[in-house]
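Hey,
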Amino acid sequence: MPPIRLNKNDEVFVDEQVKSGVYGSADEMISAGLARLREQDTETLRLLIQEGIDDIEAGRFHVYETAEQFLADIRPTADGE
């Protein structure tokens, strides 16, 4: 993996966080940030799954008899119409 390059503002922020003792090192801070992003992705996925469950329970869905019917329905959307 190539080294991570930060802009000057980010470098200053990381240095401040490490010097203040919030993080033990820049690596620790980056790891904490990545862990937070993973948590955020997991939470977003959980919310989207729940939204789908809620839609099904409320009857907000459509059953297609064939793949062609489904494709005919989504093609206008995919074409930007």
